[in-house]
Design goal:
In chain A, 52% of the residues lie in helices and 13% in strands. Chains A, B: Pfam families: HTH_5.
Chain lengths: 116, 116
């Protein structure tokens, strides 16, 4: 009986290059995808940008409707999506609710990009 | 006739804080939203991460199917979406097409985050 040299599986798959760095986990990828989906809308990107650009980093719906050219219910809907996704914090004072960028809320996106 | 002092519109809108920084333009927001939509999928985020982690920053479909636990047609579809969105470049060599992260393709996302 002739002895047969068995190659490691890796060597048999000649097309496959080895992975040399950490890869984002399934769990982190799912959570990051959810966050990016909330952000992946032109109006929502502009809302985040406008809030960050406001004096004191705070804005209410009334600050955003005119520059966005959108109705108050539409802006409120986008603010709700961004708040639910963790990008904004909301605090009610008198008649208005004021929104801020949630500290560290863009860190996961930022870390992903830095690692690529 | 009593003279009436007219206040600038800004002062009449007591809820509105002034904008102190640049805001992402409608055009840039639309283009960034399209890019983020392409990226906002768990499998696609893992594909980008896996390609970046591969030796020489290059991978083919055959490198990705097993670690992702997805079929070759599914992985090919995701690679097509990421390539169309400008995140990957594709070069055919022999039987296989090899994918790399397109240089600078994450810069717009990165700039947006830095500005917030």
């Amino acid at each position: 009986m002739t002895s047969i040299e068995l190659l490691p599986l890796r060597d048999l798959q000649s097309c496959c290059a080895p992975i040399t760095r950490d890869v984002v986990s399934e769990e982190n990828a799912a959570s990051l995808a959810r966050a990016l989906k909330a952000l992946a809308d032109p109006a929502r990107l502009r809302i985040v940008s406008m809030i960050a650009a406001h004096e004191d980093g705070e804005a209410c719906v009334c600050d955003l409707t005119d520059p966005l050219g959108l109705s108050q219910p539409t802006v409120s809907h986008h603010l709700k999506v961004l708040t639910a996704a963790g990008f904004l914090t909301r605090s009610k004072r008198g008649t208005w609710a004021y929104y801020r960028i949630a500290p560290g809320s863009l860190d996961a996106v930022s870390s992903f990009i830095s690692a690529v």
